[in-house]
Amino acid sequence: MRGIAGLPVVDHHCHLSPAGDGARAAERFRAAGGTHLFVATQNYEPAVPTDVDGYRRQFEVTERLAREVREATGVQTYLVVAPYPIDLLRASETLGLAGGLDLQQRALDLAGRWVRERRAVALGEVGWPHFPLDAPVAAAAQAAFGHALEVARDVGCPAVVHSPDLDAEGWRQLEEAGRRCGLAPDRIVKHYARARRDPTGAAGAVPSYLARRDLVRAVLHDPGPWFLETDFLDDPARPGAVLDLATIPRRAAAIAAQGAGEAERLAVPFVRSVEQVYGFRPEVPGA
Question: Global pTM?
């Protein structure tokens, strides 16, 4: 792996699928200079799991895909696992709302065990749907999210959050939810952040920015921690969505071409933020 400007190149949030490109997508990432992928689990079957064994099988598929990427490309992979928040609604159609919430909580406990066993590095995606909910469903979704934060606290890992876009008050509420559960704000990562968060406020929850060209340019000189992600879906019906895996290494190469000072800024999302939030340092072999 070559990295860019001597640095690792990290996509903080992507998905892979047995029905998609899988390792072929990771090869595009590697060929462009990418070195490390955070791979978040997703549902691989038409119906959501209705028991914990279903989630165990799902996580194992994610683990297998990540292993295939490492073996085929040399790209380092980190797993992020949890029941998807919207699964609560679909499972409740079969199990009832109380049963759906119970399944979410038990699947979160399973994800926590994977972190303890070092099979995963974070819980995610956790949170709540990005559309309005009836009051009982909203309360169940928030109960599931609170349980996720408690599990992340107990196993000592970050929680990667799926939520609607956040304004300043939304960021404050997210951080307060973590504090109520005893989870430090910088262990809460807002995945799919589509607008720059004001960097002048107190340290708090961490944005993982969608790596659009304009947004990368806007945040590049902000202090960390913050990440870049593609949220690549590996969906044959939506090729390249949300952004293709080659996007972040291409953005990094364009920034590095502007000079050493600009290249140094890439250490914020690719090295320092990973160290601060996850507690380990991505390395490029031979760099």
Answer: 0.96
